[in-house]
Each structure stands twice: as C-alpha cells, then as structure tokens.
Amino acid sequence: MTLYTNKELYGGPCSNGAIILERGGPTNFGRTEVVAWPVTNGPTPNANIVGHLRGTCVQVDNTTNRVWHFSLGLVFESTRFNGSTLQVSGTSGINGEWSIVGGTGQFNMAKGTIKRTSIMDRGTSRISELRIHAHYTPV
C-alpha cells in the first residue's frame, strides 16, 4: 500500500514535530525529535487522514549526511484497519527504508519494510511517500 505523511510540520502553531534535545554544532549529532505526523491516502491537502505516525527520531551521524534512527508506531484510524498498528524502526536519511518489526490488530505479527521518499520539502514542511510492504498473520 502507498500512503503519505502529509504535512510534516516543524514550526508554527500547527507543528507536529518538536525538538526535545538539540546539541547544536555543524552536524546536530544527537538531536532528538518527537513526531506525530498525519498519514493520508494521498499527497494533496484534501486527502483523507487514515492514521498517524508517532514516535521519536534521533540524529545518529556526526557528518552532514543527516542520518536518523526512527522508532515509530503507525496507528490506523477510520479505515478497515482501524485500531491496527505497524511498529517501525530503522536508521536512514530522510529518503530511506525502515523495518516493520511488528504489528497489532489486522497486522498481527507484521514484518516488512517501508520505503520513505520525500516528494515535497519546503523549509519547515515536508510531504513523504510511504511504500509499505508487509507480511502479517490476519486475525
């Protein structure tokens, strides 16, 4: 399935990503953020929210490559997967791949990958495409 983190916002009154630790310096090594990105069925502003991707991101590379470790839960809402989750973990750049390390509900014992690709990046706002490939045991 293909979904989108529609409007990853890192500033302003509607922010859904917050820096909780920032060391500064040229690389920001160790910078830690908490996110609650809406996940939609399309990249447009009027796309339907199908869930939220919530968790933490830590910058784990002390170079200018901006490599992050992600620990996230994708919680589905108002779809046939309502209440089901995918647990996601991985180390990558903004464009990269995460591991699906588990799931609940309809995604019981899920394993797989999510390929994340930034399709719009404007300062403190980003939209990413999420290509989800999961194997799970239906309940």
Describe this structure as you would to a colleague.
This protein has 139 residues and is mainly beta. The chain has a single domain (2-135), classed as AOC barrel-like (Beta Barrel). 0% of the residues lie in helices and 59% in strands. The chain contains no helices and 9 strands. It has an 8-stranded antiparallel barrel with strand order 1-3-4-5-6-7-8-9. The two termini are 19 Å apart. 24% of the residues are buried. Keywords: Apoplast, Secreted. It holds the Pfam family Dirigent. It is found in: Secreted, Extracellular space, Apoplast. Belongs to the plant dirigent protein family. Its main location: secreted.
Features:
single chain, 139 residues, mainly beta, AOC barrel-like, 8-stranded antiparallel barrel, 59% strand
CATH top level label: Mainly Beta
Q: Roughly what percent helix?
A: under 10%
State the end-to-end CA separation: 19 Å
CATH topology-level fold name? AOC barrel-like
Question: CATH superfamily membership, which one?
Answer: Allene oxide cyclase-like
Instruction: Report the β-strand fraction as a percent range.
Output: over 45%
Q: Number of DSSP helices? A: 0
Radius of gyration, in Å, reads 15 Å
Low-confidence stretches: none
Largest sheet: 8 strands, antiparallel, barrel
Helix and strand sequence:
EEEEEEEEE
**Coarse shape:** globular
Kindly report the spatial arrangement of strands forming the biggest sheet. 1-3-4-5-6-7-8-9
| Total count of domains | 1
Helix-and-strand structural type: mainly beta
Mean pLDDT over all positions? 91
Q: Regarding quaternary structure, how should these chains be classified? A: single chain
Subcellular location: Secreted, Extracellular space, Apoplast
Keywords: Apoplast, Secreted
Organism: Digitaria exilis
Protein name: Dirigent protein
